[in-house]
Amino acid sequence: MSDLREFPPEVMREMGYELALVQEGDTPSDWKPMAIVGPGVKEIRVSDEDGIYRSLYVASLGSKVYVLHCFQKKSQTTPRKDIDLASKRLSALCRELRASSAKPKQKKEKQK
User: Which of 11, 21, 29, 105 could form a disulfide with 7 if both were Cys (CB 3.0 to 4.6 A apart)?
Assistant: First the structure.
């Protein structure tokens, strides 16, 4: 999320609003699937006079929205380094979620 905090204030507010829509189960106003990053990954697009900004996220893992990467786009195509970074973060997230769901849940002891 540190990348998102580096966006211009108005872009940061708009991106936050769009991500809040996703959290509520709604569709962002400008998005596209990013299957090249991984299954279920989508891209929110926000523009201002200085450029085009992107947030790559996945919302299909449970009931949460996981932001994988935020960046300013400077060319027509998404840079390979941004795709690779988001893909690595998705892999790490999936490993973490599998590990946390594999841990046995401890029962609370009854108080006497």
Answer: 11
Total domains in the fold of the chain: 1
> Across the chain, how many H-helices and E-strands are there?
3, 4
Query: Does a structural domain hold residue 8?
Result: yes
The per-residue pLDDT for range 50-79, each reduced to its tens digit, is 899 999 999 866 668 999 999 999 888 999
The answer to whether residue 111 sits within a structural domain is no
Rounded Cα–Cα distance for residues 39 and 58 (Å): 8
Using CA atoms, how far apart are residues 59 and 40, in angstroms rounded to an integer?
7
Which residue range forms the structural domain that includes residue 62? 2-100
Q: What is the pTM of this model?
A: 0.83
